[in-house]
Design goal:
The chain has 286 residues and is of the alpha/beta class. The protein has helices at 7-23, 28-33, 55-65, 94-124, 143-152, 170-176, 179-189, 203-209, 224-236, 255-259, 270-273; strands at 39-46, 50-51, 70-73, 80-81, 86-93, 131-133, 166-168, 196-200, 216-220, 243-247, 265-267, 280-284. Helix content is 43%, strand content 19%.
């Protein structure tokens, strides 16, 4: 599934709004302490081990404030950096660098935090054949960037929005009058052939869904034992075999056991809603 085609335009808007929020009428401290003609060199440095995401966005923040700034990306998106490693090298107007500093670090820290946590989940299931997915539990307006950060961390994106995949969940089923009724309406409306996923919460619900020809079943909030039995039933099903996805309060402590049940995917909302901001700083060196 592809991301929104206008991501670059959305990022430009986010940068503009973030700078308006922070700078507004001007950076009075910098303007009153730093001569207008002063030039500086600065480094963006990791203060913890992390996976970089948002380096290109941070670069665009500096360029938006000071068009003549020279930015060298020393560790790009998706790369691992140890404590003390330099992500960006900057040269330009001292005022411009100082004014852009916090906004650039906010983007870089938030996105690198997501990529770093994602990499830990990916490494936790290594060797199982299971793939880690994100969810739609993202910061409003930031979804494209946060899902990109998930990819930088080595995981895959689930649907980007309500438009690129059919996902029939418990409330849809209740409002439609049952699983069969909901899927009958999906078959009627799905003229574009979007992939169809259905949430089930028990073995009994899975048994009802299997003959209905869906592309993926979401095994929600199940014990490891129930997940293993559901996966067995899907694999033993004689007709079309849907993919399997597990979800529900997945943590780093539980994800490997879940993956070892044989599910194809584990979706983890924590990748985007609970990632700690990565610790980076800007140091003026000349």
């Amino acid at each position: 599934m592809n991301g929104p085609p206008d991501l670059a335009a959305r990022v430009s808007t986010l940068i503009r709004l973030a700078l308006e929020e922070d700078v507004d009428g001007g950076d009075v401290t910098t303007e009153w302490t730093v001569p207008a003609e002063a030039m500086s060199r600065a480094l963006i440095v990791a203060k913890q081990p992390l996976v970089v995401s948002g380096a290109t966005v941070a670069r665009e923040v500096f360029r938006a404030v000071e068009g003549a700034v020279r930015v060298e990306v020393l560790h790009g998106d998706g790369e691992h950096v140890e404590t003390g490693g330099t992500v960006l090298s900057l040269e330009g107007s001292a005022r411009g660098l100082l004014t852009a500093e916090r906004t650039a670090l906010n983007f870089l820290g938030r996105l690198s935090g997501i990529a770093t946590l994602t990499r830990r989940f990916v490494e936790a299931v290594e060797g199982t054949g299971c793939r880690i997915l994100d969810t739609r539990k993202t910061t409003p307006g930031w979804r494209g960037l946060e899902k990109e950060a998930v990819r930088h961390g080595g995981a895959q994106n689930h649907r980007h929005g309500l438009y690129d995949m059919v996902m029939v969940k418990d409330n849809h089923i209740a409002a439609a009058g049952g699983i069969e009724a909901a899927l009958a309406r999906v078959r009627h409306g799905n003229r574009g052939g979007l992939p169809v996923e259905v949430e089930v919460t028990s073995i009994a619900e899975l048994v009802r869904v299997l003959p209905l020809g869906v592309d993926r079943v979401l095994l929600d909030n199940m014990s490891v034992e129930t997940l293993r039995e559901c996966v067995r039933r899907v694999k033993d099903y004689a007709s079309k075999r849907p993919e399997t996805e597990a979800s529900g309060n997945v943590t780093l402590g539980t994800v490997r056991a879940i993956a070892q049940t044989g599910v194809d995917f584990v979706s983890v909302g924590a990748l985007t809603h609970s990632a700690a901001t990565a610790d980076l700083s800007m140091r003026v060196v000349a």
